[in-house]
Design brief:
single chain; 148 residues; 1 helix; six-stranded mixed β-sheet; 43% strand
């Protein structure tokens, strides 16, 4: 009886998620790198779990992966992704693992590989999002506090 209660409590206490995908790559097989500091966004939600990750792919082949980390200096969650290649101009595709929903999301936005290119930074991070975030906004109205 005690064993059954212990198992039940364990199951209620801990949420069980699927296994995170392994998108690792052998860095020794590639000559060139490209660095991306980005935030991940799926369906309008910024991913903040350290089990969330992004993978970079060229023609379906893994070229890099990175987990979400919290950066206290910028007070936000980012990924530090290194993409590997032997060829300039390859099209990089991204996949995001959303650990909360245990799903892999293919990102429609792509990037062209450039040797030693750095995209994004802590305070203006590159967006890896699905659906893609817009780069412009329309302000329909605004007010100032205390002014009619």
């Amino acid at each position: 009886m005690k064993k059954s209660i212990s198992i039940l409590l364990f199951m209620l206490t801990y949420s069980i998620h699927g296994q995170s995908p392994d998108w690792s790559v052998n860095a020794g097989s590639y000559k060139y790198t490209m660095s991306i500091t980005a935030f991940l966004n799926v369906d309008g939600v910024v991913l903040t779990n350290t089990n969330d990750k992004v993978g970079a792919f060229v023609n379906g082949e893994s070229r890099g992966e990175a987990n979400v980390v919290f950066n206290s200096q910028s007070n936000k969650h980012v990924v530090y992704l290194t993409v590997l290649s032997n060829t300039i101009g390859e099209t990089i595709q991204f996949k995001v693992y959303d650990s909360e929903n245990d799903k892999i999301v293919t990102i429609s936005k792509t990037q062209i590989f450039e040797i030693n290119k750095n995209l994004g930074g802590l305070f203006q991070s590159y967006s890896i999002a699905q659906p893609a975030l817009r780069s412009n906004v329309n302000i329909d109205s605004f007010t100032f506090q205390g002014v009619s």
